[in-house]
Each structure stands twice: as C-alpha cells, then as structure tokens.
Here is the input.
Amino acid sequence: MKPTRDQWLWMYETMVTSRLFEEAIAAAYFEGKTPAFNMANGPIPGEMHLSNGQEPCAVGVCAHLTADDFVTATHRPHHIAIAKGVDLDAMAAEIFGKSTGLSGGRGGHMHIFDARVNFGCSGIIAEGMGPVTGAALAFKLRKQPRVAVSFIGEGAANQGAFHEALNLAALWKVPAVFVIEDNGWGISVAKAQSTAIANNDLRAAAYGIPGHRVADNDPLAIFEVAGEAVARARSGGGPSLIEIETSRLEGHFIGDAQNYRPEGELPALKARDPIPALRDRLLREKVMDQATETALRDRAGAKVAAAIDAARAAAYPQPQEAFEKVFA
Amino acid sequence: MTAATQTKPPGDASASANRSKRNLTIAKAMAEAIGQEMRRDSSVLVMGEDIGRLGGVFGNTRGLIEEFGPERIRDTPISETAFIGAAVGMAAVGMKPIVELMFVDFYGVCMDAIYNLAAKNCYFSGGQVPLPMVIMTSCGGGYSDAGQHSQCLYGTFAHLPGLKVVVPSNAYDAKGLMLAAIRDPNPVIYMFHKALQGMGWLGTVKGAITDVPEDDYVLPIGRAALVRPGRDVTLVGFGNTLHHALDAAADLAGEGIEAEVIDLRSIVPLDRETILASVKRTGRLVVVDDDYQSFGVSAEIIATASEGAFAALKAAPRRVAFPDIPIPFSPALERPLMPDANKVAAAARQVCKGN
Here is the structure.
C-alpha cells in the first residue's frame, strides 16, 4: 500500500506544519526566560516537550484515520494533534493559557483535548492505553467501524499499563492500534538501559497479536505498516503493536542540556532530519515539484503564524473561570 | 426544615400504600438499580473482577449476567489499570460504564486512571469530555481481614477534585444513589460498607435492610438526610457509622439527651448546609467516621462547623474515628479501635457536659 499523491502531499504539509509550529512555540517559549531561565516566566510557562523529528510517526498513522477515530497521545503531543486535525488556533491558544484555548487554559500543552476529532492526551506514561482499549471496546460493542489508537514512547513499554492494556485489548479483540514512538531516550535513560529486549514489537507475541517494527523513521514504511494495522482493526481483526524507530531532535523538554547524549549523536540525527529527507524524495520521485513544495510550506507557515498571532492576542481567562468545568 | 428532611429516612415506606413491603439488602438494591438502568439505557454496562458468573464478591451484580449476557456484564482479568482506564475511554466516547474493584484497599494499583484521568479529563478538556462512569468498591473492617482488606479511605477519594463520592447507609438509599450515580455525567465513587451489604458470610447491620420500592427513583447526590431530629447535639454519620450514631441517639434519649442524627449519604459534594443548620440548632457536634481519623471526613466536617457555625458552638466538637494506624488483624487489637455506639454516646455526653 503506497500513499496516493494527495496523501503524500498531506503528509508532507502536515509534517512541515508541525515543525513550524514547534519552532514558533520554541521561540515564544524563550521570551521572558533570558538571561536567567525560569520555567515559570514568559508567555508560555511550564514544561515544553517538542516533537521535532517524530513527525513521520504522526502522519504515517493518522493518514489512515478519520475524525471519528479515537487517539490518545503523550506528554509530547503536538505533532499527533496536528495530524489528527486538532484545531490549530485553539491548540495554540491553549498552549499560551488563553481563554480561547481548547479548554480555556485549564490544560495547557500536556493536556490537549479536541472532542470534535476525538483527540486527547495525558502527561502520564502509558496511561492512554487503557482508555484506548475502552474506546475500542465501545466501538466494537456498538458495531461502529471506528478504531482507537494510542501513541506512547518506548519508555512506556516497561509500564504495567502497557502490558495490562495489551492483554485486555487482545483478549477482547478490540479495534485498537498501539504505536510506540521509540526515540531512544526516556528523558536521559537510553532504551538499552531500561528495556530487557532490543525491540518492543517482540512483546506483541506475548499477547498473540501482530507486532511490527519500522526502522529509520521512514514515513512510507510507517504509512504501510499502520495502514495494515488500522485496516485489520477496522475489519474486526483485533489490535496490533507497532514500534517506530524515530528521533527526538530536541531535548526531553526545552532547557534540557542533553549531556547524556553520546558525542555526535545529535548532529547525526539532525543530518537525517525526516522533513528535508521527505522533501527530497518527493521532489526526486516527482510527487511534487518545487513550486508545490514552496506553496505547501508557505501555506503551513501562514497557518502557524495566524495561530500563534491569534493566541498572543487572545485574552487570558478570568481567575474565577478556574472554578468552572470541574464537573460536567 | 431543610431540603434534606424531604427525603425519607431508612425503612420508611413511601410508595403507594397498597403495595407490600420488600425488604432488600444493599447488595440486592444495587443489583436491582443496575439492572433497571441497563434495561432503560443500552450504553450502560458493568466491568470488573468476578462480577459476572459469581455476581460480585459482594453480591451487587447477582443475576445480571443471566439477563444481560457476558458482553454487558463483563468479567475482567485482574488488570485494574487497564479496565478502569478502559472505562475512562468508554465514557469518553459516550458509554456509561460501571466498574467494580472489590476492595477499596486495592486502588493503589490503578489510582492513576482514577485521579489523573477520570477526575481531570472533564476539567482539562474544558468540559468537552465529561466522563459518566461509576466505580463501585467495598470498604470497612471489623472482621479480622487486616489492613489490606479492611480500610475505608473515604477521605482519600474525597480529597481529589473531580470525583463525586457516595456512601449509602441502607438499601433504599443504595438504590436511589446508584440510579443517580449512573445518570450523573461525572465519575462517581460508590462505596458500600461490608457490614451493611447483606452477605451470607458476614453479619449485616439490621437497619441497612430496608423496604425498597420497585420503581425507578433517584436520590440527589450531594444531599444529606436528617434521619432523627433532636435539640441537644448533632451526630453526623454515614454508611456504617450512621447506625452507630442512631444506636447512640437511642441510648442518649434514655438519659434525656436528644441527639439529632444526620446521614451524609454523599461525601462529595458535601451537604454543608444541612450540617450547619443542625449545628446552629443544637450548638454541639460529634462526627463518626470509620476511616482513619486524621486529614479525613471528620476533620472536614468539624472545619465546616468551625468556619460556618462558630458562634453557635457551645462546646468543642468531637470525633469518633479509627486511629491513625494500619488496621491490625487480631480481634483483640482491631475491635477495641472500631467506632461504635458506646463511643459515640460517650463523646456526645462529653460535649453536652456543663449544659
């Protein structure tokens, strides 16, 4: 299964949108945090986990999903949110803590929810997997052709929730796909120091479900594997586990000195940045020409700029709004 | 009289006069409420350990699998993180799951799904993703099961914003609170006390078995009941401790002390109005709680009285609660520590001294 031209262009434009969004967030994040870095200061306070480098995971999977499909993401959610169709303006406003944000500034960057497209995330490792299993069970019981997808990091594969949810999803044969974005690092701990086996896709065998591994952060391979897993889930074949070897081109959070990385790793990863690689490939294979590439990039840039500008201009919530929405 | 007094006290048959009484246990009342709601609403289902063929270790899903089948009365593996997490996902896409984790002591293994997901998703989504779900669990000791099977932990759940917490003291309330909990658009922790449940393998406090109408009725969550009026002292209890308070009130009446007894029924939201109105009438307060004493429900109620009825207080409020130690096994150690009617009566006499 190869992407159609439209799918390729969507994947490329979405990756570019995500990257430009993260770059704009990073620039705004440093405002008010120099010369002394204090996480509490500036227009975007709090922790910030950028997804630069992991865009292929988001687009390769979400290319197969519709707004009706349910997705949970992690503490590093922006690329997946954008690929799932979360409202970019409302997401930017949420990250700036504004009243026009997705949840009126109550959640911020680690708690992005857009019910319109069935997207949610959580700052707790592996904890999206239970909800995805339940959403998928609901779809199965209601005989709806919907699937649920949980994105997690490779560090999450050592959590109890990972193993409990895989067992439950397999036992009940629910339409779910579990996607591990293996960026090699659980903050500062390398995968080999935390995980007893080399590759987590092997763990699928323990639950009798298909396990796939995608090397090299390759959008085409991710698209193909995810397409198979989503189709399998949608047609009643049950859950799958996918591990994607991706790369985190920034620190765990902005401000992370990354002293734990072996010398030369980061430049090597940046040399294999998936966005220029995909651009070159699509140009080479004549899926798009340079004029199209420029147009897509310009459109992505304009969308991001508009979202960031609107977020900056929006009002903060009134303090008393903190007391609303605790209960429905 | 406050709104709280409009609802019936335990055992008061209110439905049509020409129907015969049906005395049910809390277990049967819970199962009946769940079954009625499952018939009415196809989005309701039950998940948990041993809730299917066994009908629940505490009997509160008995008979349901025969009618609704294993898809909707769903036995789960011993994977609380997964199945309570799954309930969060089901609720997020419009179902109304009821999940059971049989002992409140077991919640350490799955607390994240409860206090980071169930309790916060409505808020963090700005109200976009309400989570209509019920979590049922048993609580209470006094039968030598030791401290991993005997705790109450009401305060632990009540402390976490975003969760409602109910604790019925009798079968009538158990049914009305269950129907209210399932229909509530928020996560509700439904805590039932083993001493009241009506199990063949454990004695049952008599007052917990009450007449239960077959009809559909709802007890509003967040409203306490004034179950015995009195002018001299307010006794606040809930679940099992309500019965200690009622027994103490009966003893005190023989000594000329008229105790007013309030059954909280809900811990979150807490019906502070009913508590304050009573304390303002009596000027004296004793709280009974079988959870650990410190930082819990009893402290919250006394703080409520101090903040809202300080001028009316004629004596320092007192509490009767389980001391701050793990619950021991030996009956020689555990039983003397349990709240009971004698301790409640003694505390009431203390606060009424020097009238």
